[in-house]
Structure formats: C-alpha cells, structure tokens
C-alpha cells in the first residue's frame, strides 16, 4: 500500500553545558518501557519503509510510525535542568520515492513536553507536513519551563489515514 503519511525519528540528542543529557540512535533496539523511553504507540524500531533517514548509514534503524491509532514516542522523565538543545532527524512522508508519497495537510508532527505532576502536554514545536519530505535535522533551543529535573518529551503525529498511511 501507499505510505502516505508515515514518519520516522532518529538520532535524538539533548546536549547540556558540558555533556550529553540524552542520546538515542535506536541501535541496539531500546526497551519500551525502558531507561530512556516510556512508550511507543503505532510504531516500531525498524528501517523505515521509505528508507533510512541516517545520512551515513542507509541500513540504520529509526523509530518508524505507520500503524493505526495514535502515533507517538515518549521519553521517561528526564533531568533537563542543565539542557541547552534538543536535536533529532525526522522525515514525514516519503519524499517522492516511487512507493512513498508526501504527507498531507494535517499530518504534522509535534514535539511536546510534560511538566512534573501534570498530565497535560505543552507544544514545543510543530513540524510542518510539507517541510520534512526528506530527512532533516531539527535543533530546538531549550529554555524556560521545559528545563525541569523531570520533564517528559513526546513526538506525536497529529493525524494520519490509518495503517500504512
């Protein structure tokens, strides 16, 4: 079937003043729940159907989302009190590869955070459906309320057309 609005995430890193706060390239395959991730929903750790999003290793795994239901991946609570930047590679849709189509309006992926003691997520960044057809690295400066000792991060696709779309 078509892979209209599937998406993939790789090379997640949170950098602090001196050292890395968090680093994940999805190899070896992490546990869910585990030491870094609480949950993955409607996704898997695999080589994406539309190809690896790693510019150096085309057989590289990523968090790849193509299932039905809510598509997201969520970290465990992280100490971001000394974090400066969040960076990651992301691809939304297939970038014109013959078996993979581009995503549509509404298929955006959002990066959200949750503060300690809260159940609500707060928007950190929206990744436009038409800006990530080919894999790109995203860098987000971390400041203000996101910098707690127990912040949860989540990447979530707002909408999609069902499994394999």
Please provide the count of β strands. Answer: 11
Uncertain stretches: none
Distance between the termini: 8 Å
Mind summarizing the main beta sheet?
6 strands, antiparallel
- Quaternary organisation: single chain
Fraction of residues in β-strands: 35-45%
Rg on CA atoms, Å: 15 Å
Average residue pLDDT: 85
CA-based shape: globular
- Enumerate how many helices there are, as a single number: 0
Structural class: mainly beta
Percentage of helical residues? under 10%
The string of secondary-structure elements, in order, is EEEEEEEEEEE
Supply database-style keywords.
165 residues, mainly beta, six-stranded antiparallel sheet, globular
Textual characterization of the structure:
The protein is 0% helix and 40% strand. It has 165 residues and is an all-beta fold. It starts with 6 loop residues before the first strand and ends in an 8-residue tail after the last strand.
């Amino acid at each position: 079937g078509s892979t209209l609005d599937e998406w993939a995430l790789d090379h997640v890193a949170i950098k602090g003043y001196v050292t890395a706060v968090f680093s994940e390239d999805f190899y070896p395959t992490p546990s869910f729940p585990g030491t870094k991730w609480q949950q993955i929903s409607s996704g898997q750790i695999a080589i994406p159907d539309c190809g690896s999003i790693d510019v150096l290793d085309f057989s590289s795994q990523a968090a790849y989302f193509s299932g039905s239901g809510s598509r997201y991946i969520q970290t465990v609570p992280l100490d971001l009190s000394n974090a400066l930047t969040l960076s990651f590679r992301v691809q939304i849709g297939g970038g014109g590869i013959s078996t993979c189509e581009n995503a549509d309006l509404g298929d955006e992926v959002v990066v959200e955070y949750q503060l300690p003691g809260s159940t609500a997520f707060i928007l950190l960044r929206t990744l436009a459906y038409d800006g990530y057809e080919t894999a790109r690295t995203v860098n987000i400066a971390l400041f203000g309320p996101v910098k707690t000792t127990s912040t949860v991060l989540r990447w979530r696709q707002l909408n999609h057309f069902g499994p394999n779309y």
